[in-house]
Amino acid sequence: MALSISGSDPTGGAGLQLDVQVFRTLGVHGAAIPTALTVQDTAKVHKVLPVFGSAILDMIRVLLRDCTPDAVKIGMLGTDDVARAVAHALYELPESVPIVIDPVIAASDGSALLERRAYPTLIELIGRSRLALPNLSEASTLSGQAIDSPEDAQRAAGIWLEEFGAQAVLLTGGHWPGAPRDLLAEKSGGGVSLRWLEGERIEGDPVHGTGCALASAVTALLAQGECLDTSIERARQFVRDGIERAGTIGKGARVLGF
């Protein structure tokens, strides 16, 4: 079983609904805790309605007392109250259960999806994660490091490992000019191991939910006992295939095809 703790997307193109779709597609039962309800369509997030932190705390605690997930994915948190509730509840999670964090700060249309005062709690959660998957903007915002070059990306990844405490960071580079490149940084032998993962750009209109799908695919594969490297490799291919099969369901961005 894999557990997603994230915001709801009524289009099914991202967030909680997409996570559960990905889990099922990859052969894992999906459990889900909503952190926020969103009013959105395929073009824009119109409104965010956070779930009460106390309700989230209760939902996670009751679930964990009944069954233990094999991996947990954390996505959109929205508010400081929600972030604190999630952090507090997950202290009841066994340390052996890997946590994957997609540090959602803003929607692709620029809408804010996390209060700035929640950043310290998000960083606390990153410190407990097996893998964090920030995009360039998220990595820059939380590290305070402008990312205009591969060298900048490596410095920012080092901050996520050494200061934030993540075991590994996959800095996704879909917004690099030219071919996309992801940077995998891991703690290794008292130091940091850096590896660039090359990709290819798939032409076409924008696709919604690629970051959510990547994180949830890694989570599903870790839940099945795959090692981190294999999980990342298979998850990246899963998302590439989804982009190639992406289709239109509304007037905005395309959604991934599975």
Main beta sheet strand tally, sense and closure: 5 strands, parallel
Instruction: Assign the CATH superfamily.
Output: Ribokinase
Mean pLDDT: 94
Q: H/E order of the elements?
A: EHEEEHEHEHEHHEEEEHHE
The domain count comes to 1
**Kindly, what is the distance between the CA atoms of the first and last residues, rounded to a whole number of angstroms?**
20 Å
The tally of beta strands, per DSSP, is: 12
Shape: globular
How much helical structure, as a percent, in the residues? 25-40%
- So what's the CATH class? Alpha Beta
Major beta sheet, strand line-up: 2-1-5-6-7
As for the CATH topology, it is UDP-N-acetylmuramoyl-L-alanine:D-glutamate ligase
